[in-house]
Amino acid sequence: MLGMPTFDVVSQVDMQEARNAVDQAERELETRFDFKGTSSSIELSGHELTLRSSTEDRLKAVLQVLEEKLVRRKISLKALDYGRSRKPPKARFARS
Description:
2 helices, 96 residues, four-stranded antiparallel β-sheet, 4 strands, alpha+beta, globular
């Protein structure tokens, strides 16, 4: 009896594109009036993203800016594994 064929699906994030998206998002945070004085930032270290802002509301806006840039760079938001909102909040690129 023959078994069912198996295969692995591997989805890898193009980390250069991820860095580009983070850089674009950071530039937008620096120039947008609604982020002035909020200490908002995005940091990419390895496969881990750290988002910071002065309020939960601004933090959600930071995440929205980042997600828009990732999508424009053809990085699926499914590649993100969101951590709990904590000090500082984190998201990771899921590894397959």
